[in-house]
Design goal:
The chain is of the alpha+beta class and about 250 residues long. The protein has helices at about 1-15, 25-50, 65-75, 85-95, 155-160, 195-210, 230-240, and strands at about 55-60, 100-105, 110-120, 125, 130, 135-140, 165-170, 175-180, 185-190, 215-220, 225-230, 245.
Length: about 250
């Protein structure tokens, strides 16, 4: 009994740990401010993310399909103003036939602004394809081909000769330049393009093919002949003329 008594006295004599007072007033104030700010943010996002009510289309539409545009843009209508994925909408519109580019932006409070630029055909490709000014085939098959467009049926002709087309370019003056897969540039100009192509194929077979490795460019903008621009090492080595132009031939035309 004595041992138990002494033990009880020791436990009563040990100092107790005192916890600091909890600042309930400060904690309550901070929580109130946090909840208030969260409420404002939530309300603001709700107000900003109201459903899209209108889509405004801008641009001159002649070939772009209205039904295809509506099918793409219908997905955006009814979605939240902030939730609408502008990048996806823009890429889907730009992928439609005859669309050269598309821009999509938001207009407060519930409008999407869509600007569409149509492709402008610059030449025919094959039987019923169309090229734009950058030489890109943007329509492979179409039933409406403007009669004034030149026909650049070059792929098949070059493949038969073991060549290919790396690029086609149309400059601001309307002059065509073709870059072959072997690096030779062919200047076709803006006039009589089909006729000049036909003469180029003949020149390729008879003159250019045997020395193609030394040729930098071929200028077909002459009435009857053509000019050859040699690579620097060929010109420096042989001192050869840079042309295969008949005597008296005038300067090249556009």
């Amino acid at each position: 009994m004595r041992l138990l008594g002494r033990g009880n006295r020791r436990r009563r004599d040990e100092p107790r740990v005192k916890l600091p007072p909890i600042p309930w007033v400060a904690i309550t104030t901070v929580l109130g401010v946090v909840l208030f700010v969260a409420g404002i943010v939530t309300a603001g996002r709700w107000a900003l993310n109201r459903p899209v009510q209108e889509v405004v289309l801008k641009g001159q539409f002649e070939r772009v399909s209205a039904d295809q545009l509506e099918a793409v843009l219908r997905q955006a209508v009814g979605k939240g103003f902030l939730a609408a994925d502008l990048r996806t909408i823009q890429s889907e519109v730009a992928a439609l036939p005859w669309v050269a580019s598309a821009q999509v932006s938001r207009q407060w409070p519930d409008v999407l602004d869509v600007t569409v630029t149509e492709e402008i055909p610059a030449a025919r490709w094959g039987a019923d394809g169309l090229l734009n000014a950058q030489g890109r085939l943007f329509v492979r098959h179409t039933t409406h081909i403007p009669a004034e467009l030149p026909r650049l049926a070059v792929h098949e002709q070059l493949v038969e000769r073991g060549r290919g087309v790396a690029a086609l370019e149309l400059d601001g003056r309307g002059a065509w330049t073709m870059l072959l897969s072997n690096g030779i540039g062919v200047r076709l100009g803006s006039r009589d393009v089909e006729e000049r192509l036909a003469r180029f194929y003949e020149a390729l077979d008879s003159v250019i093919a045997p020395v193609a490795v030394d040729v930098q460019f071929v200028d077909m903008r002459y009435t009857n002949g053509f000019a050859v621009g040699w690579k620097q090492q060929r010109a420096a080595r042989a001192g050869e003329p840079d042309s295969a132009i008949p005597p008296g031939e005038p300067l090249p035309r556009a």
